[in-house]
Design brief:
Chain A: Keywords: Membrane, Transmembrane, Transmembrane helix. The complex is a heterotrimer of chains A (about 230), B (about 475) and C (about 220). Chain A has helices spanning about 10-15, 20, 30-45, 50-75, 80-100, 105-115, 120-130, 130-150, 155-190, 205-230. By secondary structure, chain A is mainly alpha-helical. The N and C termini of chain A lie far apart (about 50 Å). The longest helix of chain A has about 30 residues, at about 155-190. In chain A, helix 1 packs antiparallel against helix 5, helix 1 packs parallel to helix 10 and helix 3 (about 30-45) runs antiparallel to helix 10 (about 205-230). Chain A has two domains: about 10-105 and about 205-230, no CATH class; about 120-195, no CATH class. With about 475 residues, chain B is of the alpha/beta class. Chain B folds into two domains: about 15-220, Rossmann fold; about 235-480, P-loop containing nucleotide triphosphate hydrolases (Rossmann fold, 3-Layer(aba) Sandwich). Helix content of chain B is about 35%, strand content about 20%. Chain B has helices at about 25-30, 35-40, 80-90, 95-105, 120-135, 150-170, 180-185, 205-220, 300-305, 335-345, 350-355, 360-370, 375-390, 405-415, 435-450, 460-470; strands at about 15-20, 60-65, 140-145, 170-175, 190-195, 200-205, 250-260, 275-285, 290-295, 315-320, 345, 420-425, 455, 475-480, 480. In chain B, helix 6 links the parallel strand 3 and strand 4. The N and C termini of chain B lie far apart (about 50 Å). In chain C, helix 1 crosses helix 3 (about 95-110). Chain C has helices at about 30-65, 80-90, 95-110, 115-135, 140-165, 170-200, 210-220, and strands at about 10, 20. Chain C has a two-stranded antiparallel ribbon. Chain C has seven helices and two strands. The radius of gyration of chain C is 18 Å and the shape is globular. Classes of the chains: A mainly alpha (about 230), B alpha/beta (about 475), C mainly alpha (about 220). Chains A and C meet through helix 1, helix 4, helix 5, helix 7 and helix 8 of A and helix 1, helix 3, helix 5 and helix 6 of C.
């Protein structure tokens, strides 16, 4: 596995910072300018286009459906609808572009070593995230068992909601049993007393992380700057 | 759980801890590890010391391997995972690579430290857990059934790795296993606990087993050199299919079935999509039993789920006998949930996932109710089955309070009690004691003799023998194809 | 005696049910507390994903009736924090579970990417405020409903008003908040409490305070 060249903290910050800028977008032209700039910047960052395009497609679909419903039920005002679409795009495009570079284990390393968050909750969380796929398969097994027994989730929304709740309980039962054995295995390797611990891999903050962070700040500021300039 | 137990184990000794389920073997292991505070509740008295000190005084003094190998996985890559204990004990990072590599070597782990932990088989994951324990130089290694979920080859590899590492480092070893046969020749001592948690025998394994072998076998333990248990005899009337196909005709037919998948979340995470099944065709006849064999990852579970109408094939289809067609036709995965339940039953690998309700009796009646079967007759059948399986006293209990073996017997009975024409089971005997093994194979054979088509995915050779002889078949899968 | 399991856990009286509290100090997390909270986050991340597959059709129908009503379907997304808070009973458990659940959504491939972390954190904070108001000593229906409501309110007031429903009029925004809070109170609050009690009955939560309550009740 080749190492991503940016640290996860700067990438995460750059994914989240647009949330400060997006609310400023209200008109079509404002939105077009901002999203246009964002897409130009993305051209520099993106290397793996096939998966990025797929994720951007999902984002566009979500934004368009939001725009459509805004238009249908929000007074059929095209400018408002387009503004809503572009605002969501502005919020989510950075996350869609940067998401694949963020690896949870490395994020944990950096949260603990660089941000000095308490090590035990951080490490427990990254350990738990290793179980994601296993819990996904368990959910599938639980769903299959119900279908095979004649009590599957076919039917209306209320029935499906009830079945989902009962499946959630089954999943919680397995989850708690897994948590118990994971805790035993972790305590057997000294995790119980590891309030201060070392990390096998360093969590450096590089110059390019500063660049990405500044980029994120710029993305947050851009919609506001536009307002100031055009006012 | 345990009361007033005294036990002294010498350095370097290799001890087998045996006893009925519920005798507190696992509790004792957690006590020796000094980890009773991790998950146990209740009163604790007495003391455990290793080399005169509390076992947790130096982290990693006591290594622990658990039944579920993935319980020990904490990181995405092998190297990070092995380093976990070193990080916790504040080992300087520059010393870690050497210690990690040494531990992987000592555990006989076949890949290097960059390997993703997600790509490992159960046996490889267990050896990774062993490496994680060895990295901390344990004085004692405790094994809580670490090979019970593995096939024979992988179990043997794990066993060899453990024994070699103990030999090399002079580690004391305490083993709890249902299948004690393969361990016996390597161990110096056998301690037997009774149901109250008291020591009833303590001596050389050969002598203890010669004296207590029969009674241990009666408690369900797989004692070496004893014949396999006889499958429980179950009244076929209780498991007779309610929907019939003519004698000997094909009930289920898989036609050129192909399945690809990557992630449980629909392969959307950009993961490589693997071939789980490739162009598989096979049939299950009325009144026959078929064993699906093959190594781990060969596609047994996927084929079983396809034959149960639970896995929609990407290519090809599974059809059911025309007489049993549903509203939308013969394609199995298109049947509605109640239609499917009336025709084909399926039992997941872990019984816990197969439980859909709260009390034992309800569990047996859920499908009958969903299918609108007469309540009184269904309850009579259910109670009679519980009687057969030794679960009658538990009819009103919560399904979650049963032991693993009791849950296993319950889910197999619950799959059968409403009379489906097909029965498909995923590893129903793995890790089970002799009594549950006999009950499960007995239920399968009774269903088959009553006219059901029975398909079992398993790597249990003894169960395979019991299910296919006489008159059954074995199909072997290798990398998603029938051989 | 070299070690002892706490046989007399902390209790708070009041009400008909005895309340077992987490051992003190409140921030003295055992490994199993941390791992359970994080694992519940992962498990609910999976449940959220399953719910998102069911969500679209009824949400579209409600939107057609009156757009703010879609918030009535949002309750399930607040469950992780309420359940972890009521189960672990330590400060921060709800926040940890919600953030992990949000990370799961990002990893599975939500179209919102890692921005869901902001939602997750705000929802977790809502639950923490409710539990803090009672100093982590009360975990009954009232506290559960309050936790679900505050999780909903934090999410709407600090996030959704500014990012998702920006173009709603203020009347609609308030209606949206109301519907979200109702859903949070009923589905996440009461539903979460019922899930925790059902979980305690299975015996799978015996290492947690609600599991101990259940053990004591069945021992009487």
């Amino acid at each position: 596995m080749s190492r991503p060249s940016y640290g996860p903290l700067s990438l995460l910050a750059a994914s989240l910072l647009p949330a400060l800028g997006a609310p400023a977008i209200h008109s079509t032209r404002h939105g077009l300018v901002c999203v246009g700039v964002l897409l130009l910047v993305s051209l520099v960052v993106v290397r793996d286009w096939s998966s990025t395009v797929r994720r951007l497609g999902l984002v566009a679909l979500a934004a368009l459906s939001l725009g459509l419903s805004t238009w249908l039920y929000g007074g059929r005002d095209l400018d408002v609808a387009a503004g809503a679409t572009l605002r969501v795009l502005y919020l989510v495009i950075p996350a869609a572009v940067l998401t694949p570079f963020i690896d949870p284990t490395r994020l944990g390393d950096h949260l603990a070593q660089r941000l000095h968050l308490p090590a035990r909750p951080v490490v427990a969380s990254t350990a738990a995230l290793q179980r994601l796929e296993a819990l996904g398969w368990q959910w599938q097994q639980i769903a299959r068992a119900r279908r095979a027994r004649g009590v599957g989730a076919d039917g209306g929304i209320l029935h499906r909601a009830r079945v989902t709740a009962s499946m959630a309980l089954s999943l919680m039962v397995s989850t708690m049993r897994m948590s118990g054995s994971m805790s035993l295995a972790m305590d057997a390797r000294g995790f119980g007393a590891a309030h201060r611990r070392t990390f096998a891999e360093p969590a450096p903050w590089q110059r390019r992380d500063t660049a990405i962070l500044l980029g994120g700040v710029a993305v947050a500021a851009l919609p506001w700057l536009y307002l100031v300039v055009t006012a | 759980m345990l009361a007033g137990l005294d036990l002294r184990i010498e350095p370097g000794e290799k001890v087998l801890l045996a006893g009925a389920s519920g005798s507190g073997k696992s509790t004792l292991l957690r006590a020796i590890a000094g980890l009773l505070q991790t998950t146990d509740v209740g009163e604790l008295s007495g003391e455990v010391s290793v080399d005169g000190r509390h076992p947790q005084e130096r982290a990693g003094t006591v290594g622990l391997l658990l039944q579920d190998p993935s319980a020990a996985v904490v990181a995405d890559r092998v190297g990070r995972d092995v380093a976990f204990g070193l990080e916790n004990t504040r080992t300087p990072p520059d010393l870690m690579p050497g210690l990690v590599a040494g531990a992987l070597r000592a555990a006989g782990f076949p890949y290097d430290e960059r390997r993703s932990t997600r790509t490992l088989s159960g046996g490889e994951t267990q050896r990774l857990a062993l490496a994680g324990a060895l990295a901390l130089r344990p004085q004692v290694l405790l094994l809580d059934e670490p090979t019970s979920m593995l096939d024979a080859d992988n179990a043997a590899r794990v066993r060899r790795s453990v024994l070699a590492a103990c030999e090399q480092q002079g580690t004391t070893l305490v083993v709890v296993e249902h299948q004690i046969g393969p361990w016996v020749e390597h161990l110096d001592r056998c301690v037997v606990l009774d149901r109250s948690g008291a020591v009833i025998a303590d001596g050389r394994p050969g002598e203890v087993l010669a004296r207590l072998g029969e009674s241990l076998a009666a408690e369900g333990i797989w004692v070496p050199d004893l014949p396999a248990p006889r499958p429980l005899s179950v009244d076929p009337v209780l498991v007779t299919p309610t929907l019939h196909v003519p004698v000997g005709e094909v009930l289920l037919a898989a036609e050129r079935v192909g399945v690809t998948y990557g992630s449980p979340f629909g392969g959307s995470a950009g993961e490589p999509r693997n071939v789980a099944l490739d162009d598989v065709s096979c049939v299950l006849h009325e009144g026959e039993s078929v064993v699906l064999g093959g190594g781990s990852g060969a596609g047994k579970s996927t084929l079983l789920a396809a034959l149960a109408g639970l896995q929609a094939p990407d290519r090809g289809a599974v059809h059911i006998h025309p007489r049993l067609a549903g509203r939308k036709g013969r394609v199995l995965h298109r049947l509605t949930s109640p239609e499917l339940a009336a025709r084909v039953a399926w039992v997941p690998q872990l019984p816990e996932h197969g439980l859909v309700t709260h009390t034992v009796l309800d569990e047996l009646l859920v499908s009958a109710r969903a299918l609108g079967q007469p309540a009184a007759a269904a309850e009579r059948r259910a109670r009679a089955l519980l009687e057969h399986l030794g679960l009658a006293a538990l009819a009103g209990s919560s399904v979650h309070h049963l032991s693993g073996g009791e849950q296993r017997r319950l889910v197999v009975a619950a799959a059968l009690v409403h009379g489906p024409a097909g029965l498909l089971l995923d590893e129903p005997t793995v890790g089970q004691d002799r009594n549950t093994w006999a009950a499960v194979t007995g239920l399968c054979l009774a269903a088959r003799n009553a006219g059901a088509a029975v398909g079992v995915a398993t790597h249990d050779a003894v169960a395979t023998h019991a299910l296919v002889s006489p008159g059954g078949r074995t199909l072997t899968l290798e990398r998603g194809r029938l051989t | 005696m070299s070690s002892s399991v706490e046989s007399q856990p902390n209790r708070a009286s009041g009400g008909r049910r005895t309340t077992v509290l987490a051992s003190r100090p409140l921030l003295g997390y055992r490994t199993v507390d941390l791992v359970s909270a994080a694992m519940l986050g992962v498990a609910f991340g999976v449940v959220f994903w399953a719910w998102s597959l069911v969500y679209n059709a009824p949400a579209a129908a409600l939107y057609a009736v009156f757009p703010p009503l879609t918030a009535l379907l949002a309750g399930p997304w607040l469950l992780a924090g309420v359940v972890a808070g009521l189960l672990v009973r330590r400060p921060g458990a709800a926040l940890l579970a919600e953030v992990v659940a949000a990370a799961v959504s990002a990893l599975i491939g939500s179209q919102w990417g890692w921005t869901v972390l902001l939602s997750g954190a705000l929802q977790g904070v809502g639950v923490e405020i409710a539990l803090a108001l009672f100093a982590w000593r009360r975990f009954g229906p009232f506290v559960a409903v309050l936790a679900g409501s505050l999780a909903a309110a934090c999410e709407v007031v600090f996030y959704e008003w500014w990012q998702y429903v920006v173009d709603f009029s203020w009347a609609w925004k308030l209606a949206y908040l109301g519907a979200f809070v109702v859903s949070g109170a009923v589905v996440a609050g009461l539903g979460g409490l019922l899930l925790v009690r059902a979980l305690a009955k299975t015996g799978a939560a015996n290492a947690m305070p609600p599991g101990q309550e259940e053990l004591e009740r069945s021992a009487v």
